[in-house]
Amino acid sequence: MSMLHFEPATSQEALPSPSDPRMVGIVERVLAGERLSAEDGLVLYETPDLHLVCGLADIVRRRLHGDVAWYNVNRHINYSNICALSCSFCAFHRKKGQDGAYEYSLEQVKEEALKADAAGATELHIVGGLHPKLPFEYYTNMLSTIRECAPRLHIKAFTAVEIVHLQRISRRARMKYEGIVEVLRDLKEAGLQSLPGGGAEVFDDRVHDEVFKTKIKSDQWLDVHRAAHEIGLNSNATMLYGHVEKRPERIHHMELLRGQQDRTLKEWAAAQDIGTVNGEVVLTGPEEMYPAKRMPMPGQKGLSTGYFQTIIPLPFFPNESELEYLPGPTGLENLRTIAVSRLMLDNIPHVKAFWIMQTLDMAQLMLQNGADDIDGTVVWYDITHVEGASTHQETTVTDLQRSIREAGFEPRERDTLYRVVKRNGSDWSTSE
Ligand code: SF4
Known about the structure:
Blueprint: H1 22-32, H2 38-46, H3 50-65, E1 68-72, E2 74-78, H4 106-118, E3 123-127, H5 136-149, E4 154-157, H6 160-169, H7 176-190, E5 194-195, H8 205-211, H9 218-230, E6 234-241, H10 247-271, E7 308-315, H11 331-344, E8 350-351, H12 355-358, H13 360-367, E9 373-376, H14 397-406, E10 410-413, E11 421-424, E12 427-430
Parallel strand pairs: 1-9, 1-10, 2-3, 3-4, 5-6, 6-7, 7-8
Antiparallel strand pairs: 11-12
Helix pairs in contact: 2-10, 2-11, 3-11, 4-5, 6-7, 6-9, 7-9, 13-14
The structure holds iron/sulfur cluster.
Residues 83, 85-87, 90, 92-93, 129-130, 161, 215 line the site of iron/sulfur cluster (SF4).
C-alpha cells in the first residue's frame, strides 16, 4: 500500500520570498545563526508570511535533529486531583469531598508503576494537585516505592508549583531558594530524576493576577527549575497560551526561559568551544559554528548541572474551566506558536508537539514546522484534553511511528534524557 508523503521545503533555496519587508533581516539572522530579538519574535507572530516563518523553523529544526523525530514509551500518573488552589483555566482540580475528587494510595501508585514497567515504559510522568492534607512523606514514599518496585523507570515528577507546595509542607522554608534546593535534594534521594515543565503558564504578572492569582509567579517557577538544574536534574518548560495573554507576553515568556538557559549552559558552551556573544548560547546556527557538540547531554564536559531539554507549547482548552467563554487558539495559531518557539528558543534543544493536546494529526504537521518530538504512548491523562476525548488516552508505538514516517521523518525512540532506546518488546536499553 503506498503512503501519502508530504515533502516540506527544507532548504534555504526552497524558502518562499518574503512579502513582508520586516522578514528580510529575520531570514538573514536565522540563516547566519544569530539570536532573534523580542521585536523579531513579534514580527514572526504578526507577519502574513506564515509559510516563511514555518520554513525557517524547519531549517533550524533540521540543523539540530536532521530527519529524526522523537517519541517515547511512557505512562502518566495523576496521583490526586484534590487541590488547595482554584486556577480559573483549570478543569482538573476538585475540592476534598467534591464529586470526582480522588487520591491514590501508595499501593495504587505501586500497581500503576508495575503495570507501566511490564508494558515496557521507560518513564513515569507524575503530577497532581496541591493536596491540602497529604504529608511530605507521602511524596518521598511514593518515589521510593516506585524506585524499589520498578527501578528501570525514569521518574519525572512534580511541577514547580507542587515543589513549592512540598517545600511548605516539609517545613523547609527558612530561606526560600535554599528551601527549594533542600526539598529537591530530598526528593532526588527518594528517586526523583527530572522535573516536567508544567505550571509555567505565561510569565506575566497581569496574566498571573487575572487567571492564576494564587499560583506561583514566574520568578518562583524559574527558581525551582534553576534549583533543579543546580542539583543535576534536567527539566522541561511549558507555555500555556491562547487564553487572556497577548502575543508580546508569550515572547517575554520565551525570553525569560532563554536567558536562564544561557546562564545554565555558559560553562558547557565554553568547554565545547561554542562561541557566545553577550553570554548568549545559540545552538541553532549552521553546522560550521559547532566544532564539537551542539547538543548538551548529561555528563558532557563542562556540564555539571541539569538544563532545560524541551519547550512544550500547550494550547489552552476552555471547556469545563471558568474561562469557558474564551474561544481558545486556532490550528494556525498553534502551528505558528510551535514555529516561533523553535526560532526564539535557540538554546533549548527540543520542541515538543504534545499530541494529547495538539492531536496526533496536528503533531504530524508540527514536525514539519519546528517540532522534533511528539511525546509518547501516554495512558490516562487527566489534566486536560481535546474536547470529546476520554481521560484514557493512549496510542500505540505503531501509530506514533506511522505518523512520524508519514510526516517525512525517521522515528526514534528516546528515554527521558533523549538517549536512544534499543527495544525488544517490553525489554529495552539505552545507547549509553
Ligand atoms: S492548575 Fe494546578 S494548582 Fe491550579 S487549580 Fe489546577 S491543579 Fe491546582
